[in-house]
């Protein structure tokens, strides 16, 4: 997979890795109160999706770890569907460390595709789910088994 930095110009390829560590500053908007966090689950929320001046769709994701486990690394593979239901790209969204009871907000830019061109985002698989203190490369099943999704954007988001 190709690593992507929001600060660099890139051509959209079939698979990209977007790293939360390279996130842009968050612009806040008034939002209604967040729904209650289900106990024992990791919730990924597509919180917002707006077009940038450069023609990218900027998606704001909120990850909340309601599980008792802390993770040194987390990441999920997602498929991006266009308005006709065709998968246009597969991305790896890396969130980094996600301690127990922690909420993390990360922005990802999808270059060359406006938000109106995206109908839904589907979590396809886990790419990183390393429990705190475990060996590098060890994947925990918690990051998919205990995963819930929701969307506050005009884009459907699910598993």
Commentary on this structure:
This protein is mainly beta and 159 residues long. It is built from 1 helix and 10 strands. It has one helix at 142-145; strands spanning 2-4, 15-19, 42-51, 57-65, 71-81, 87-98, 103-110, 120-131, 147-151, 156-158. The strands form 2 sheets. It has a 6-stranded mixed beta sheet. A 4-stranded mixed beta sheet has the order 7-4-3-9. 29% of the residues are buried. Residues 1-17 and 19-32 have low confidence and may be disordered.
Number of domains as seen in the coordinates: 1
Question: First CA to last CA: what distance?
Answer: 21 Å
How many helices in DSSP terms?
Answer: 1
Rg over CA atoms, rounded to whole Å, is: 15 Å
Portion of residues in helices?
under 10%
Low-confidence regions: 1-17, 19-32
Keywords:
159 residues, mainly beta, Immunoglobulin-like, six-stranded mixed sheet, four-stranded mixed sheet, disordered N terminus
Give the secondary structure arrangement, pairings included:
Elements: E1 2-4, E2 15-19, E3 42-51, E4 57-65, E5 71-81, E6 87-98, E7 103-110, E8 120-131, H1 142-145, E9 147-151, E10 156-158
Parallel strand pairs: 1-2, 2-6, 3-9, 8-10
Antiparallel strand pairs: 3-4, 4-7, 5-6, 5-8
Task: Give a quick precis of the structure.
The chain has 159 residues and is an all-beta fold. Helix content is 3%, strand content 49%. The strands form two sheets. The chain has a six-stranded mixed β-sheet with strand order 1-2-6-5-8-10.
